[in-house]
Amino acid sequence: MPKKKRLQTNKCNFTAVKSGVSHPYNSMGIHILADFFGVECRKQLLNETRQLTEVAMEAALLGRHRILKNLSYSFKPEGATIVLLLAESHLSIHTYPEHAFTSVDLYSCGRTAKPRVTIGFLLKSFKPKSWKIIQITRGNSNTEVFEIT
User: In the chain, fewer beta carbons within 10 Å around the N or the C end?
Assistant: First the structure.
């Protein structure tokens, strides 16, 4: 049986090559998990994937994310899920209108994206009465978790 390679848990550096120019690329990313409670936005936003996708795309673009693809699904009798595949990773939104609740998952790597701007726009769009937002720094052995209020 071959010996397993031990993964290094320290910060990893990769080199991304674009147009023949080499750029150091740090593998760390920001992972934001957000729960919106008492969501008071228009009920259509929580049920119609077209409107939900538009809001998610606007939020992603404001946060300087590059959208590669999107996927959505409407549940019956209500609720929806959308996923944006980003060049920097992903944004997913799951709605539960019957509980006035929305769950958001945003993972973002790279140097240009502003994930907190994306989350801020979603907060304004969904208008929750309260929320819990957790930010996790990914990709190094000193992972930190921040709760954003």
Answer: N
